[in-house]
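[User] Could I get a sequence and structure tokens?

[Assistant]
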Amino acid sequence: MPDLDDLGALRLSLELAASVTAILLVIGTPLAWWLASGKSGMRRLVGAIATLPLVLPPTVLGFYLLLLMGPEGPVGRLTQTLGIGLLPFTFTGLVFASCLYSLPFVVQPLQNAFETIGKGPMEAASTLGASRIDAFFTVALPLARPGLITASVLGFAHTLGEFGVVLMIGGNIPDKTQVLSVAIYNHVEALEYTQAHWLSGGMLAFSLLVLVVLYSIGKK
């Protein structure tokens, strides 16, 4: 059975996944809309940067984030100046790193949903006197609801299952930065396979549920 440390890791993982998903929906939705409908020549570069975590090894991303948020990095200097302190090995640091690592899992489904809508509905709303912002909230977002659901589920599930980035940025501090994937790793290292089976089985069942939900959304 899971022990108290495992339950703490589960709670922290759920808090991290919920926080990251909420932040990415706020940030990723306008970004995805701009990538889908904007005319700037910078879209390809920005889209490539947003997609980079899909192909970049987590350890590479974690290493550069450590440098970025360290005492000599620009983010680290800024947070120290603001009195926040350094972000590595804190829950806030985990949120920051996870937002970058899970960004493409939220932006890409939203961008695909907005591109599927096309320009017709927005042009129709414009002829009826709706401003671009009004049309976005009353036309584009409702029509992109399947994409929003997919982005939310993928962002939450991906953040919940992270290992490399969270281990490098957060370390392994119980009740502070130790998430579920790190707890499983600890049990395997200690040859505690029963506890590892409990946690891994739960993650496996959750992952299967996520895929069922996504396939159901796709069929609808």
About this structure: The chain has a mean pLDDT of 88. The CA atoms of residues 70 and 76 lie 5 Å apart. DSSP finds eleven helices and no strands in the chain.
